[in-house]
Specification:
The chain has 28 helices and 32 strands. By secondary structure, the chain is α+β, with helices and mostly antiparallel strands. The chain is globular and about 90 Å long. Bound molecules: phenylalanine and zinc ion (ZN). Zinc ion (ZN) binds next to helix 2 and helix 3.
């Protein structure tokens, strides 16, 4: 096995395989203790390797080979670094048969073939197939698969694999079998099998091509009443991809299977998607609006992979963003279109950007910073990151912005014309988009644009404007820079699309004309910043305009605009771009948070000024704004976002101070706007029958924010009415969004009624694993107060319902803790000691999960003392474990590297 060898895999060293595997016939005798796998492969020497004396090296991990035959004759083999090495092979195509065994029940890593809830499931991306049988486990080797499954019929009545079922029947000894054929050649990471006791919801649909398809969602028998939304989302995704990109389903049968033990969100195995239950199961009683939204997004995401990922796949794992960035872009566009109104679309965009800035920007500033197309890795599983996914999606979005909506659709068409059925690279994708749009803003600067794939770090864009009253001109100067990141000290300029509008002081949109430019004077323009610094001059302006920069967040950069308070207030009140309205409000709040954190050192009490409170009040009262938008406007920037902004200003982060300041501001907003919160509550608390649509969910979100403020203010005033109402709502709510909102209001305010409400909630939802996860998370993410939240987390780690073996459950408590800065980053280091213990404990069971948790201390260097030193010690303690997995080792050694 390769345990302990920290080999670095490099993108530059890619070479084509010495052999191809064209088809594979797999047979499984499924048994939890010992499963027998027989693999018959059609192998072909790669003609590019002249002389073909190459050994065939097949990947394998934690499996036992029992026999190898070539063209029906047993041959000798050796094992080297876990690989099965075969020499003196025929120079003509040959048949290779391998028998091996594996142990699904012992497979706690949930990678390869494993058991969960009494069934068999697989997970092969990125390198799980080698844990099932010996193979060329790399995405550029594509084969057709035929799969025969044999298992006990009573325990495993449902037998599934990719493609179409061609045969099934009974066998002796209570066993049965099924044969599946997938006609589409695919890399082995898209292989899947399921053998379990499941039921399914079915629907037939006819696609644009006139073909008939069978859609199925498989779940455990008690969960059938939670499958309607997933099925509706799947049908919607199917229709959307045909309408937007002309892409139809290429399969007779498309299956989704839910499994409760799963490391990630879901997996796009060809025709047989396997999902974490969290992203399939939803009904109003157990799932919140956020869950409904996530199910829609993830069902869409995996479905869209059928083209972007499966029909055209990645040449190697460095190209991961080829499929992930593009598919995230597609699911974001899908969910925006599903949201409907322009305002609801903007809300979705704001949520996506908030996530990107919170997680990806921090990643890009820390020890794990890597390009969208990484250059090297130790454990590929560590590179399923926000950078590859979310920043990758922004890179695709910028291309779409530069070539226009129709141009992007043309580019996609060319991409599939060129590469259908192939394993390709990020360069291939960018080239296709560009070639389809030779006259676009992208084509002439494609090479420079592709630096987005190669350079890590978040670019900074400085903007400064100057108004020349005599000549009625306004000159905007934009310049860019990008801080050094691990392995990249110097950066070349990025190609940055900057969507711009100009407003007058009354907030009216101004026509924008360039010197000598065309007469057309639109009120929004797309500037392309591609040099270190560039100036843009606009003419015929009667007064100094207020610039609205980077509308819709047109590029993943940090804007340093130094806008005045007045400018920000103008944008907040009037900008026609909803994203920038929200952003202006965040900026106003952020500046106050930062100033108060600094002032705290002089013992000054954090106090919000009347101007800010008035602005927030006006927004809260503004009935012309959607409830969802108001909820976003009235939410202050998060503690971790504030921390990153402090880092940028060279200030060491004290999470305790940030927390104290933000909490004080929240309390002040709760008090000052008490009457408004009550009015908002009265107007939005009752939403009638449940529907997850954008309008109703927005109303619920705003009502929950109002209730949280009212219960919080009660903690100050001693009022018992609002906590009582919240408690009542916990009992009586008819949907999970309202119920959890009310419970959360009590828990977040540390109200006395929180305890009985939590107990009641737990009793009511025993047996609903996904709801119990929420119960854990709610307690772990409550605002820290005198260490009680951390103490609660430690106690909950001993709760009979807690287990680190189930990834959802482990995340619901432990990841939640690391995302609660004030509870985690304690001055006494207890948070870090606990973290180190859990990382080590989980690493022995599930290294992928442990590596995710290990990232909780990525930003330790930004901390003030004593946290900084204590965090370093905790990291060193983990790193000192000699038998650490490569996954965790890569994370902690990067974190500790200078
Ligand atoms: N490819 C999956 C997706 O994003 C993610 C995944 C990666 C799932 C690795 C499991 C393992 O759709
Ligand atoms: Zn994906």
């Amino acid at each position: 096995m390769r345990e302990g060898t920290e080999t670095l895999v490099r993108r530059e060293l890619y070479s084509a395989p010495a052999y191809w595997i064209r088809s594979v016939d797999l047979s499984f005798d499924l048994d939890p203790i010992k499963t027998l796998v027989i693999s018959r492969m059609q192998v072909e020497p790669n003609s590019a390797f002249a002389g073909h004396h190459e050994a065939l090296r097949l990947d394998g991990e934690d499996i036992t080979v029992t026999r190898v035959q070539v063209n029906g004759q047993s041959i000798s083999f050796r094992l080297e670094n876990g690989q099965l090495v075969l020499e003196n092979l025929p120079s003509e195509p040959f048949q290779l048969e391998i028998r091996n065994t594996c142990s699904p029940e012992k497979n706690t890593r949930l990678n390869g073939l494993y058991t969960s809830g009494g069934g068999f499931f697989t997970q092969c991306e990125a390198q799980g197939f080698r844990r099932i049988t010996f193979f060329l486990d790399r995405p550029d080797v594509m084969a057709t698969f035929k799969v025969t499954l044999r298992a006990n019929k009573q325990s495993y009545p449902v037998l599934l694999s990719n493609g179409n079922k061609v045969e099934s029947g009974d066998l002796d000894h209570g066993r049965h079998y099924a044969v599946w054929v997938d006609p589409h050649p695919k890399p082995c990471y898209l292989f899947a099998l399921v053998a379990a006791n499941l039921v399914c919801r079915e629907q037939r649909v006819v696609s644009r091509t006139g073909k008939d398809h069978l859609l199925q969602v498989y779940v455990r028998s008690g969960d059938l009443d939670k499958t309607e939304h997933a099925m509706q989302s799947l049908v919607a995704a199917l229709i959307w991809d045909e309408a937007r990109f002309g892409l139809s389903l290429d399969l007779e049968r498309f299956m989704i299977v839910a499994v409760s033990d799963f490391n990630m969100g879901a997996m796009e195995n060809k025709g047989l998607n396997i999902f974490n239950t969290k992203f399939v199961l939803a009904n109003p009683a157990t799932a919140t609006d956020v869950d409904f939204g996530n199910v829609e997004a993830v069902v869409g995401h995996e479905y869209f992979h059928n083209w972007t990922g499966n029909r055209v796949t990645c040449r190697d794992w460095f190209q991961l963003s080829l499929k992930e960035g593009l598919t995230v872009y597609r699911d974001q566009e899908f969910t925006q279109d599903m949201a409907g109104s322009p305002s609801a679309r903007a809300v979705k965009r704001i949520e996506d950007v908030r996530q990107l800035r919170q997680i990806q920007f921090a990643e890009d500033a820390g020890p794990m910073a890597h390009p969208v197309r990484p250059d090297s890795y130790q454990a590929i599983d560590n590179f399923y990151t926000s950078t590859v996914y979310e920043k990758g999606a922004e890179v695709v979005r910028m291309m779409a912005t530069l070539v226009g909506r129709a141009g992007f659709a043309r580019g996609m068409t060319l991409y599939f014309e060129r590469f259908d059925g192939q394993a390709v690279t990020c360069d291939d994708f960018a080239q296709a988009i560009s070639d389809a749009n030779p006259d676009s803003a992208l084509a002439p600067r494609l090479e420079a644009f592709k630096r987005w794939y190669a350079q890590s770090g978040t670019p900074r864009v400085q903007a400064s404007g100057e108004y020349d009253a005599d000549n009625r001109r306004y000159t905007l100067t934009l310049s860019q820079s990008c801080p050094a990141t691990p392995g990249q000290s110097e950066k070349q300029p990025f190609v940055i699309p900057v969507a711009l509008g100009l407003l007058d002081r009354e907030g009216r949109a101004l026509p924008m004309q360039f010197v000598g430019g065309p007469l057309a004077s639109p009120t929004e323009r797309l500037l392309v910043l591609e040099e270190a610094s560039q100036s843009f001059t606009f003419i015929n302006l009667d007064s100094a305009p207020v610039p609205s920069l980077l509308r819709g967040f047109s590029a993943p950069v940090i804007l340093q605009a130094q806008a005045s308070q007045d400018d920000l207030l103008t944008l907040l009140r009037h900008d026609s771009d909803a994203f920038n309205r929200w952003e202006a409000g965040q900026q106003l709040g952020l500046e106050r948070l930062l100033a108060a954190v600094q002032a705290d050192q002089n013992g000054e009490e954090p106090t919000l000024d009347a101007a800010f409170i008035d602005a927030m009040q006006a927004l809260l009262r503004d009935e012309s704004l959607d409830a969802a938008f108001r909820e976003l406007l009235l939410t202050l920037p998060s503690e971790s976002y504030v921390a990153e902004r402090l880092v940028e200003r060279g200030v060491a982060v004290d999470p305790q101070t940030i927390h104290r300041v933000r909490d004080a501001f929240r309390a002040q907003l709760a008090q000052a706007l008490h009457a408004d919160w009550a009015a908002v509550w009265d107007k939005h608390a009752q939403t009638g029958g449940y529907s997850p649509d954008a309008i109703s969910s927005g109303r619920r979100a705003l009502a929950n924010l109002a209730l949280a403020n009212l219960v919080l203010d009660a903690a100050r005033s001693g009022d018992t009415v609002w906590p009582g109402r919240a408690y009542q709502r916990c009992k009586d709510a008819t949907n999970m969004t309202d119920r959890l909102g009310a419970l959360s209001a009590l828990v977040q305010a540390h109200a006395e009624l929180a305890e009985p409400a939590l107990a009641r909630f737990h009793a009511q939802f025993q047996g609903e694993a996904l709801v119990i996860d929420k119960w854990f998370t709610l307690q772990a993410t409550a605002p820290e107060s005198n260490g009680r939240v951390f103490a609660r987390v430690k106690a909950l780690a001993q709760h009979p319902d807690f287990s680190v073996k189930n990834p959802n459950r482990a995340r619901s408590l432990l990841m939640a803790l690391t995302q609660n800065p004030a509870a985690f980053h304690r001055a006494d280091a207890a948070g870090y000691v606990f973290w180190a213990e859990k990382v080590i404990e989980i690493d022995a069971i599930n290294r992928q999960l442990a590596a995710r948790l290990a990232r909780g201390l990525d930003r330790w260097r930004t901390l003030a003392e004593p946290q900084r030193g204590a965090a370093q010690e905790a990291l060193q303690r983990v790193a000192a474990k000699p038998d650490l997995s490569a996954d965790v080792r890569e994370i902690v050694s990067r974190a500790l590297a200078a």
